[in-house]
Design a protein that fits this description.
Number of strands: 15
CATH architecture of the domain at 227-389: 3-Layer(aba) Sandwich
Helix content: 25-40%
Order of helices and strands: EEHHEEEHEHEHEHEEEEHHEHHHEE
Oligomer: single chain
Structural class: alpha+beta
Mean pLDDT: 91
Low-confidence stretches: 381-402
Length: 404
């Protein structure tokens, strides 16, 4: 049985963060030490990001709302809202993105109506509420009230993989199943001024966005363009790294733990993490990595991508989808790898079947991998994830700190 991702759509909030402008605002905060200010400038300048999106209009740096909660444009001060204040905003703003992405994915999937959806799987690690996003999506899209609903919470940047793997299992168990997978993250809710390197790193990288996919094994659907067959998934815990990457809940938002050794852990263990995945298919396991046509790598940060490219001896072109996603929209935690997959789907299709190897990294240190096949086409060339995300390229410094 072949399980296929039939449509993949994204949603981003309207407020644009220009990296250099946000850098200057963070570097100007009182209480920063000289080292802290230096780290702010280094992290922001080295992130390989031009623009990001946020659900917080205040972070546009020009918003003059009364009673600001996150940023006071009049004084130039970053404020310190409580975790409750941040989470209350998540419940409102994340819901909008969940619904927008899910609606777009459903509209883009020919032959599938709301009544056809049998399962909903939602993903997020940046907030909590209940009835949750699975409920909100079900109600907003008019899905069957008996639809099976699941929410994967607080898993981090690799969360889209367990969601897709679960969808594949549902479809293999029931050939008529149609699964809606939706990931939405509001990472910008948890930014704060600090001299802590982990907090500074998070502020320089993370952004808001959502992505949704329709996954099914049904064969009675019309061809609606390029799609992705979900062939195999694997998950690996590296033997080291439990203390190097974590995601905790604090009194003033969620707090990242991100050791500088993370890229080195990935460099040491990425080949071993790929072995069980590629062993599923003899047609790829014996080939050099660069002969796999597409690589959908979660762009946790520039140093991560540099390590993957060098260790696997991939071409620069094979990392373009990940690097362009990072450059134009930043790191949106679990949703980001779906943006990378969408970028790949929008590229010209030469015919036949093109393989995709995908991976993401998260707390543990956990490495999630997927082996896919791109089918369908041809499509017209696309220079970015979509026209709405295209931004002019900018120069990026050579030194890059760690990231997830």
């Amino acid at each position: 049985m072949t399980v296929t991702l039939r449509s993949l759509e994204t949603a981003i909030p309207p407020t644009v963060l220009v990296q250099s402008e946000v850098r200057d605002a963070f570097a100007a905060q009182p209480g920063l030490t000289r080292l802290g200010e230096r780290l702010v400038r280094t992290c922001f300048d080295s992130a390989a990001i031009d623009t990001r999106r946020t659900a917080l209009a205040e972070l546009s740096l020009t918003d003059t709302s009364e009673n600001p909660k996150f940023y006071d444009a009049r004084s130039g001060l970053l404020l310190r809202p409580s975790t409750k204040t941040r989470n209350d905003i998540f419940a409102v703003e994340a819901t909008k993105l969940f619904i927008e992405a899910a609606s777009k994915a459903l509209d883009a999937c020919a032959g599938i109506a709301p009544s056809d959806i049998t399962h909903v799987v939602t993903v997020s690690c940046t907030g909590f509420f209940n009835p949750g996003p699975d409920y909100k999506v079900t109600r907003a899209l008019g899905l069957n009230p008996s639809v099976q609903r699941y929410h994967l919470g607080f898993m981090g940047c690799y969360g889209a993989f367990p969601a897709m793997r679960a969808a594949k299992s549902f479809c293999e168990s029931d050939p008529d199943a149609v699964v809606l997978v939706v990931s939405a993250e509001l990472c910008s809710l948890h930014v704060r001024t600090s001299n802590d390197p982990d907090a500074i790193m998070g502020s320089s990288l993370f952004a808001d966005g959502a992505a949704a996919a329709i996954i099914t094994a049904r064969e009675d659907l019309p061809d609606s363009g390029p799609a992705i067959q979900l062939d195999h998934f694997e998950t690996i815990l590296t033997p080291v790294g439990e203390e190097a990457m974590a995601w905790n809940i604090g009194d003033e938002g969620f707090e990242m733990v991100l050791g500088t050794y993370v890229p080195h852990i990935i460099d040491d263990h990425i080949v071993g993490a790929l072995e069980p995945l590629l062993a599923h298919d003899a047609s790829v396991s014996a080939r050099p990595y660069r002969e796999i046509e597409h690589w959908a790598i979660h762009p946790g940060g520039r140093s991560i991508l540099d390590k993957v490219e060098a260790k696997l001896e991939l071409s620069e072109q094979q990392l373009v989808p990940a690097r362009e996603t990072l450059r134009t929209v930043g790191n949106m935690s679990s949703a980001t790898v779906l943006f990378v997959l969408k970028y790949i789907l929008e590229q010209p299709f030469s015919g036949g079947n093109e393989r995709i190897c995908s991976m993401a990294f998260g707390p543990g240190l956990t490495v999630e991998t997927g082996l896919f096949t791109r089918v369908g086409g041809p499509v017209q060339p696309s220079a970015a994830v979509s026209a709405e995300l295209a931004e002019p390229a900018g120069a990026v410094p050579a030194e890059v700190p760690a990231a997830v």
